[in-house]
Amino acid sequence: MGKATGFIDYKREEAQERNPKTRLQDWNEYSAPFSDEVLQRQGARCMDCGTPFCHIGMEIGGATSGCPVYNLIPEWNDLVYKGRWKEALERLMKTNNFPEFTGRVCPAPCEGSCTVAISDPAVTIKNIERAIIDKGFENGWITPRIPKKRTGRKVAIVGSGPAGLAAADQLNQAGHSVTVYEKSDRIGGLLMYGIPSMKLEKRVVERRVNLLNEEGISFVTNTEVGKDITSTELNKQFDAVILCTGAQKHRDLVIEGRESKGVEFAMDYLTLSTKSLLDSDLKDGQYIDAKGKDVIVIGGGDTGADCIATALRQDCNSIVQFGKHPQLPMARTSNNLWPEYPHVFGLEYAHKEAKAKFGEDPRQYSIQTKKFVSDENGNLKELHTIEMRKVRDESGMFVYEEIPGTEKVWPAQLVLIAIGFEGPEQEVLKEFGVHVQNRKVAAEYGKFETSVDGVFAAGDVRRGQSLIVWAINEGREVAHKVDHYLMGASTLPSQLAM
Ligand SMILES: Cc1cc2nc3c(=O)[nH]c(=O)nc-3n(C[C@H](O)[C@H](O)[C@H](O)COP(=O)(O)OP(=O)(O)OC[C@H]3O[C@@H](n4cnc5c(N)ncnc54)[C@H](O)[C@@H]3O)c2cc1C
Ligand code: SF4
Question: Staple partner for 309: which of 18, 234, 350, 373, CB 3.0–4.6 Å?
């Protein structure tokens, strides 16, 4: 283990961040690295407890607890404490194909179930993970691993998000010839277009994609399966197909005035911003601009927070975020105990930035939008709301009811709808003729087989909008199944086979 008394001797040090006012001037990552000395001290806090909940990913009460890719956390914490970084990297790469993504943007359910966190702040697992992989790249320890033998089997993967990329990586290493089809102009799914550069710089995504390409994976961009190439063609050309098309169908807010100019979907806003930044450093003007506008983000989640950070960098005039739910408690409550994911109040990077710029947290809780109002030219000018409270109905279920007299009018020229996703786009699923349940592909976790022979599904298209670390988990597991399907056996790792 790390240092036997490390969790007593050292306090948790929170992740370093660049000054919010400074970082608002650019689109670079907001986080800042720790020094090796700090990281070794933080690694020493790991107790190497006999039953490390941190590395056993599961769902409790609808939220993730522990690491879904079963990262060998106590092992690499110990190696980092001892300064044996290269060995820590080897341990990390055994379970996680892309720690440079999760080490930056994973919500770290591992930390919520860290044993130290029963009574003290958790070990800073996510930052250690990021430092290990960043050091691996900086020191040239990450080099292309070109498979020595090819099996002659061909696999097509539709969609290049983390699920598709993880499946491609595993199957390529097993010697199969893998082609990834992507309808967008860049590879990465939501890693590229969705999560903004301030959270995950796109050079980090491109570095991994280039490496996978060097290792033998073929990428075909600007190609929508179902339009530019049919399922029949793919089924004919490949021995197996994996659908990793995500769950990006917008959920709309259909209320009076929705047609007003200036009411946009969050995903369109985020995608165009990143694309313009990458294409032309924002010089082409091909994005939705918040400059000088009063902006309201409807939706209290992470996508909403990413919209806030983007609007602030575009120099909006004001920013507010509406959430349907009440503010979270400051500490765990009796119905959210360890090792569950802690549902507690926190300031996201975007909220800190809004506070630095405008002096207050932009979030408004328990609020419902009633209607949008536009001017005589159809341009949005205001938004009407009412406050809500949570009550029990006759059957004892919690429901929201409006509080009379709390109506309010908010000036707004740009509204971003970030109220989640309805599920996967259906066209490509119809194209393959796979069974669908609740809009998602019907394919059992662990088997990943769809109703069509040779066609598998993994990631958000199968489980609905989730997390990158779950997408990587599913990519790895579906690869094991597909390898087995093609070869009759598989030596690829699987947690489910353990
Ligand atoms: C704004 C936003 C921020 C997020 N932030 C975080 C975060 O900080 N941390 C975290 O863990 N998770 C985050 N998530 C969730 C996470 O990004 C997803 O759970 C994850 O990317 C799902 O991976 P995936 O590979 O299943 O699908 P996706 O990443 O959605 O990729 C699917 C890909 O398939 C492509 N595709 C679809 N149809 C076709 C077709 N017919 N032909 C070819 N290509 C096709 C799409 O263009 C897309 O590139 C965020 C999500 C959003 C929307
Ligand atoms: S991938 Fe996420 S859950 Fe797993 S160790 Fe890293 S931060 Fe924790």
Answer: 350
